[in-house]
Specification:
The protein is of the alpha/beta class. The protein has 15 helices and 16 strands. Helix 1 crosses helix 10.
Length: 495
């Protein structure tokens, strides 16, 4: 789910598509052309240039192919796709790269843009951009789906597709349909790997990322396309539900195209895959939850189910737009307080404030990158504990502790030393509220019971829990002081 509004000359890149085990598709040539001016993509309300980053836009032109499965798709995700039809395309990519090559860390993150709002949205960038910027990643946003380019059916019709937002700039774009989006994303990855769009930077690792609807497409990509394309070095599949997209391009309800309601990651993954699952994703929100798509970690899979998280939250709605790394603790503290309204809509209950999600996404990006650099996978984490469910057809519920917090999963100080009950379950009467979970601040009597020594008692316990999360590599050490400063401020805040 995502909801935002808005937003030289290079050599051709030869794209040769070779498939092991099937006849190779006809070799295609994808050309990359730079586009002057400001891209239509909301990444921030602050100036990325002042942070040492260059933002550029390119058009990617070529011929893409669709895929099909010779047999019925199975819930285990062990799919063998074959090339089907072909069609011409012109789409766009946006590149955010360090201006100083010496600050580039060698990794390019390639995001499959989210189109739930009816236009392109950079969901994982928004939640995790602080880590991306401070570590010197290059970031590439790909308009992979037709809704972002041409328009069409979307879960929320708030946004404006590129060709309508700026016909002069984007009138020449042409998207043949989401059945071709998988190969378009492959060709974008190959273009990134060739380095032509990176201003002379030489990529050492190219990682695919995507959230929500994009995660559904990436799940299918990992299961069916990656064994053939072999372009990406790793995948961050962020906040997926139980199903996946179909190869025909049906996004979140693959069952409508004959795909299972619950799809696991294939057993023989080619490269590392780290997936982060919020409570909302696990239980499902008008969609099948991930609870029935679980499988054990193995050498190429790590799953982080994070307690106290929601699919969307305050940070996504408000903090992401302003947080350039220089905001004061007081400003950030306001972001992490209960609110019931946002640019995305409103809810009868306060949205999840978002700290566990934001900070663990940053740690997940760091953990996956370290995995690709060193070959050492993050330590496996226990799953969130279910009271009911865990298989198709059984309504799931979370097992909860004395403070109403979910048990198990990735632990953070906001759930182990709480001042409010954070949940992935929100207002079912509101689409946004359903996705954005809830925050229930504790009353003064509860706070006095939990922290009889007052604020000093709370901060001592919170600090110990934070340091445990840092040692577990579920929070990045660079965030420690910021987190402590915000916690101290918000303990004194009264609803």
């Amino acid at each position: 789910m995502l909801i935002w509004i808005r937003g030289a000359a290079l050599a051709a890149v030869l794209v040769l598509v070779q498939f092991g085990g099937i006849s190779p598709a006809v070799a295609q040539t994808a050309t990359i052309s730079a586009v002057a001016g400001k891209p239509n993509l909301l990444l921030a309300t602050y100036d990325l240039g002042k942070l040492g980053y260059v933002v550029e836009e390119f058009f990617l032109t070529g011929t893409a192919q669709s895929y099909r499965l010779p047999d019925s798709p199975t819930a285990d995700g062990n799919w063998s796709a074959v090339a089907d039809k072909s069609a011409p395309f012109v789409t766009r990519v946006v590149v955010v790269r360090p201006r100083d090559a010496a600050k580039f860390n060698g990794t390019v993150l390639v995001e499959w843009l989210n189109v739930t709002s009816g236009q392109d949205g950079a969901a994982t960038w928004m939640v995790g951009h602080r880590e991306i910027l401070r570590r010197g990643y290059a970031y590439v946003a790909v308009s992979a789906q037709i809704v972002g380019v041409e328009g069409g059916n979307a879960v929320m019709a708030q946004g404006v597709p590129l060709k309508k937002a700026d016909p002069k700039r984007y009138g020449g774009l042409a998207h043949p349909g989401d059945a071709y989006s998988f190969d378009m994303f492959t060709q974008a990855g190959r273009a990134v790997r060739a380095g032509g769009m990176l201003g002379g930077l030489k990529p050492e690792r190219v990682t695919a990322i995507g959230e929500s609807q994009s995660a559904a497409f990436l799940t299918t990509y990992v299961n069916a396309i990656d064994p053939l394309a072999r372009v990406y070095d790793g995948f961050f599949v962020h906040s997926r539900f139980g199903s996946s997209a179909s190869l025909a391009g049906t996004p979140m309800r693959g069952a409508e195209a004959g795909y299972p309601d619950h799809v696991r990651f294939r057993r023989n993954l080619r490269v590392p895959v780290l997936t982060l699952i919020t409570e909302t994703d696990l239980l499902g929100a008008r969609l099948g939850g991930y609870h029935a798509s679980r499988r054990m970690d193995d050498r190429h899979l790590r799953v982080w189910e994070v307690a106290g998280t929601a699919h969307a939250d305050n940070y996504l709605f408000a903090g992401a737009f302003i947080d350039d790394g220089s905001r004061s603790a007081a400003e950030l503290a306001r972001v992490f307080r209960p609110m019931t309204t946002s640019m995305a809509g409103s809810s009868k209950v306060p949205f999840n404030t978002g700290q566990p999600h934001h900070y663990t996404v940053q740690a997940a990006l760091a953990g996956l990158d370290n995995w690709l650099r060193t070959g050492r996978a993050p330590v496996s984490v226990r799953s969130l504990r279910l009271a009911t469910g865990g298989r198709p057809g059984v309504t799931p519920s979370l097992a909860k502790g004395a403070n109403g917090m979910a048990l198990g999963g990735v632990r953070t100080p906001w759930v182990d030393v709480p001042i409010a009950r954070l949940s992935g379950e929100g207002d079912p009467a509101s689409f946004i509220g359903m996705l954005a979970g809830s925050t229930a601040p504790f009353d003064q009597a509860t706070l006095a019971r939990l922290y009889p020594g007052g604020k000093a008692d709370y901060m001592a316990k919170f600090t110990r829990a934070l340091d445990r999360a840092i040692r577990a590599k579920h929070i990045v050490a660079d965030d420690r002081q910021e987190i402590l400063d915000v916690a101290a401020i918000n303990f004194d805040w009264k609803p």
